[in-house]
Specification:
heterodimer; A: about 400 residues; alpha+beta; Rossmann fold; six-stranded mixed sheet; five-stranded antiparallel sheet; 10 helices; 20 strands; about 30% strand; elongated; B: about 300 residues; mainly alpha; MetI-like fold; 2 domains; 13 helices; about 70% helix; globular
């Protein structure tokens, strides 16, 4: 058991592409750290550098107290779950799970015992004689996990292990991974592009963008206090609505298009940094759940929009609406992820804003709907640097 | 004019069997039943012609080997009227034929094993590592494929002479390995490269060293390809004649093809035993082929290992 510490690690590929830039990250023993970011942000490179599958251009990686920069993969005692699982096709499930132990020259009886117990934990005891090609995606995933837990590694690495599963199985296996990680209790690094996985699994989440660490904190902190526009747009689904607004000079309100949201003195107390932006443009962020349907017991500032689409999810309604408040599309935010294959960091025009309201409200397409915003829930960002405005 | 038309029609009729058209003829109004049936028929005709041309001599050989007293070369009856196995007995017992058979078996198996081991090592390096002059060296290997083996006969003879390996099975194996290596490396490299890298990475993380990766992972995964090349190498070295004839002098070191040639005397040819020996000589190749046949099929679906 050991912690992982990454100190000012940089990775430059031979073609000059800098995949990771001056990364500092510490994963404590027993902690599950999730590295999340859009594709091409360097998260997998980080994982591969820890595993020793990729050289480090500069910096130091330690596992426990040992600097492992030049230690070959096989001597790092790392278990890794690959995106493709990489189960050895020529071996059956039991051989797959026991292979690392065989390499460690563990006695055969001991291997059989440990394989059996790992298989029991994961509920795969019935398939030990099968070849990987005879297993379903979910079963393969379990075998890959079994391979990792049986060897009681120093460090546990996972590279998008759920991306090949269907949605239902993914939720199920997510819980399984959390359980397994807790059981083996070692430092674990989990890489994903899915912010839901990151939020639900990670004790802490590191958000990476273009090889630069944006923020590393507990999931709730990332959600409540994103450090910049990128994190604000990336964490949360649907993504945070970001508007170009302008703060009035008395700090009593912010204009979003033709609409005006009044700000109480509490808001300025919470965000003292707002004083620097008096009378200036500012980016205002609102989480979809903070755009409520108006109700008597929760007073708030009114925000009107024309409803474009209503998505009824049963437990909630996602109301897509537009108004004349100009929107800011955070780069690589969730809203654009689907359509973006390469790591193009362009600012795109947003389609609409999203509100998440309770299902009992009657909202129809074409309606002009009056949402209610509690100003204390607003987030503010510097429009030039993108940083969140707090102090 | 009509004559010309006739030949023109004939040529279009004849064209499809030689080269099955990829597109259906424009006149056929789409890929209709009729067009498909005609294509199938022409395929059948080609198949029959090819099987007759390749199986015919084989059957003739088989037939003659059972003809009493060597039969007559001009025999037109395929099924012998008085079949006998005397030729086989004679072939196996005279002329140390069984000894040649054993020599050939040793040479062929040794060639297969040594070639596959060395080619796997080289192909693995070409497939997975970066080193200076990698492509140049690889092209150098490929270029050697373009040199006809017969051209090398004299240099090889001189080389073997200097190495004191003339008239020895070891020397013969060495030459066969050398001539089979380039093609085998070329073929295995392609297969090795198709194996997803993650398997190898996972293997290394599980504690395997490089050679273990090769023999424990890459080779088992490429087994279909290895079975196929093994078959090629086996039949090539089993059948090889000119090099063996040049390098081997003493009859105790004769391989089968050279031994077979021994049946052909200066004045007389014992046709019956000769054909019986030929039949025996084809058996191992057929056996090896049948064993590797199942790999031919799975070799095609190597991509399924994902």
């Amino acid at each position: 058991m050991a912690s992982i510490s990454i100190e000012s690690v940089t990775k430059v590929y031979p073609n000059g592409f800098e995949a990771v830039h001056g990364l500092d990250l510490q994963v404590d023993d027993g902690e599950l750290m999730v590295v999340v970011g859009p594709s091409g942000c360097g998260k997998t490179t980080v994982l591969r550098m820890i595993a020793g599958l990729e050289n480090i251009s500069s910096g130091v990686i330690r596992i426990g107290d040992q600097v492992v920069n030049d230690v070959p993969s096989r001597d790092r005692d790392i278990a890794m779950v690959f995106q493709s699982y990489a189960l050895y096709p020529q071996m059956n499930v039991a051989q797959n799970i026991g292979f690392a132990l065989k390499m460690k020259k563990v006695p055969k009886a001991e291997i059989a015992k440990r394989v059996k117990s790992a298989a029991n934990v994961l509920g795969i005891s019935d398939w030990l004689d099968r070849k990987p090609s005879q297993l379903s995606g979910g079963q393969r995933q379990r075998v890959a996990m079994g391979r990792a837990i049986v060897r009681e590694p120093n460090v546990f690495l996972m590279d998008e292990p759920l991306s090949n599963l269907d949605a239902k199985l993914r939720v199920q296996m997510r819980a399984e991974i959390a359980r397994v990680q807790k059981r083996i209790g070692v430092a674990a690094l989990y890489v994903t592009h899915d912010q839901t996985e990151a939020m639900t699994l990670g004790h802490r989440v590191a958000v990476l963008r273009s090889g630069v660490l944006q923020q590393c904190d507990a999931p709730q902190v990332l959600y409540d206090r994103p450090t910049n526009l990128f994190v604000a747009g990336f964490i949360g689904s649907p993504a945070m609505n970001l508007f170009e607004g302008s703060l009035n000079s008395e700090l009593t309100g912010v204009a979003l298009g033709s609409q005006h949201i009044g700000l109480s003195s509490d808001v300025v107390t919470l965000h003292p940094g707002l004083r620097r932006f008096a009378g200036q443009p500012i980016v205002v962020g609102v989480r979809p759940e903070d755009l409520r349907a108006p109700s008597d017991d929760r007073p708030g500032a009114a925000f009107v929009g024309e409803v474009e689409v209503v998505e009824a999810l049963g437990s909630e309604l996602l109301v897509h609406f537009t108004n004349d408040a100009p929107m800011v599309q955070a780069e690589d935010s969730n809203a654009t992820k689907g359509s973006r294959d390469q790591d193009e960091e362009s600012v795109e025009l947003s389609v609409d804003c999203v509100a998440r309201i309770e299902p009992r409200h009657e909202v129809r397409q074409g309606d002009t709907f009056k949402f209610s915003i509690d100003p204390i829930r607003l987030e503010f960002f510097d429009p030039t640097t993108g940083s969140a405005i707090w102090e | 004019m009509s004559r010309f038309d006739g030949t023109a029609t004939l040529s279009t009729e004849m064209a499809p069997p030689k080269k099955p058209p990829k597109k259906p003829p424009a006149t056929a109004a789409g890929p209709g039943l009729f067009g498909a049936r005609r294509r199938n028929k022409s395929r059948l005709v080609i198949a029959i012609i090819l099987s007759v041309t390749s199986l015919g001599p084989l059957l003739y050989m088989l037939s003659l080997s059972f003809q009493p007293n060597g039969g007559l070369l001009g025999a037109t009856v395929l099924i012998p009227t008085h079949p006998t196995v005397q030729n086989y007995v004679q072939a196996w017992t005279e002329n140390s034929f069984s000894h040649y058979f054993l020599n050939s078996l040793i040479v062929a198996f040794a060639t297969v094993v040594i070639t596959v081991v060395f080619a796997s090592l080289a192909a693995f390096a070409f497939a997975r590592y970066q080193f200076p002059l990698k492509q140049t060296i690889f092209y150098f290997f490929l270029a050697s494929l373009a040199v006809p083996n017969l051209l090398l006969l004299i240099p090889q003879f001189l080389l073997m002479d200097r190495l004191h390996l003339l008239d020895s099975l070891t020397g013969l194996v060495l030459l066969y390995v050398a001539s089979n290596l380039p093609f085998t490396i070329f073929l295995l490299r392609g297969f090795f490269e198709a194996i997803p890298k993650e398997y190898e990475e996972s293997f290394r993380l599980d504690g395997a060293r490089t050679l273990r990766v090769l023999w424990g992972l890459i080779v088992p995964l490429a087994l279909p390809a290895i079975a196929v090349v093994s078959m090629f190498i086996f039949s090539a070295s089993w059948d090889e004649f000119p090099v063996a004839l040049t390098m081997i002098n003493s009859s105790q070191n004769y391989t089968l093809p050279v031994g077979l040639a021994d049946f052909i005397g200066v004045h007389t040819v014992a046709w019956g035993p000769f054909f019986a020996a030929s039949v025996i000589a084809t058996v191992p190749v057929i056996v090896v082929f049948l064993i590797s046949l199942r790999w031919f099929r799975s070799g095609v679906s190597l991509g399924a290992i994902r």
